[in-house]
Design goal:
Helices cover 60% and strands 0% of the residues. With 85 residues, the chain is mainly alpha-helical.
Length: 85
């Protein structure tokens, strides 16, 4: 069982999900879920755009959470590679 299936299984112990919610949660890891390796995600994302939005939100949160730990305003402004705006 991959991370997406496990997430749906655990949530459904407490809440009843709609089919679209279950699909979105199942595919929230995108291609990073070992169970999804070799599976085209476009079908899931076309059938349920919420799946793509949840994946993007999850991925964006991970990036921003990691960035917050590493960066400060001073380190970004002082970084010549960083361009504001």
């Amino acid at each position: 069982m991959g991370h997406g299936e496990k997430s749906v299984f655990l949530i459904e112990r407490f809440l009843r999900l709609t089919p679209k919610e279950a699909l979105a949660i199942r595919w929230h890891m995108g291609g990073f879920d070992d169970a999804a390796k070799g599976t085209p995600l476009t079908g899931a994302y076309e059938q349920c755009p919420l799946a793509l939005l949840l994946h993007m939100a999850d991925d964006g949160d991970l990036f921003l959470t990691k960035a917050r730990r590493k960066w400060t305003v001073e380190s970004c402004v002082g970084n010549k590679k960083f361009k504001a705006g």
